[in-house]
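Ticket #4471: structure output looks truncated?

Reporter: J.K.
Steps to reproduce: submitted the chain below (187 residues) through the standard prediction queue, then opened the result file.
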Amino acid sequence: MTKHRCGWCVGDPLYEAYHDEEWGVPVYDDDTLFEFLILETFQAGLSWITVLRKRENFRKAFDNFDYKIIATYDDDKYEKLLQDSGIIRNKLKLKATISNAQAFIKIQEEFGSFSKYIWGFVDEKPIKNKFKNYKDAPANTPLSDTISKDLKKRGFKFVGTTVVYAHMQATGMVNDHETLCFRYNEV
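Returned output as attached by the reporter:
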């Protein structure tokens, strides 16, 4: 018997594996939260599968998504990233990655962890929606608007409300699996 999956991932093995193993699973670990934040910022204006296919290249280019290292990147490293054909070479997104790593560390210093900060917006508990079709899920919500504004106020770039909502979905802050999806009740 085949498993029923959310319609957005069906037909691509990489997409299906990401859906089955990661998407919507609550993430409380700062390293993983940062990785998804960076990947989501690069996804802005592109399809998620494009970013997913380049994920390992991003991992190599960005020192395994180590925000402490990324926060110290200098002009030489920035120029090296611009030459890396394995990643998305958007100048503004590359610069944002560096400044976002710095802002991420500041939030950790203020709240003890980025996880405490970001999960505080949902009182530490995932929001469980009830969409029969993934197309019914919103691209953003008033809550993602609020988080986006707060992140921007704290110096983050490329964290518009749609990017933030995608981050919330990816990291399980919101469960937008279709109600008939086998993962809906698992996450």
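Triage note (M.O.): checked the attachment and the full token line is present. The chain has a mean pLDDT of 96.
Status: closed, working as intended.
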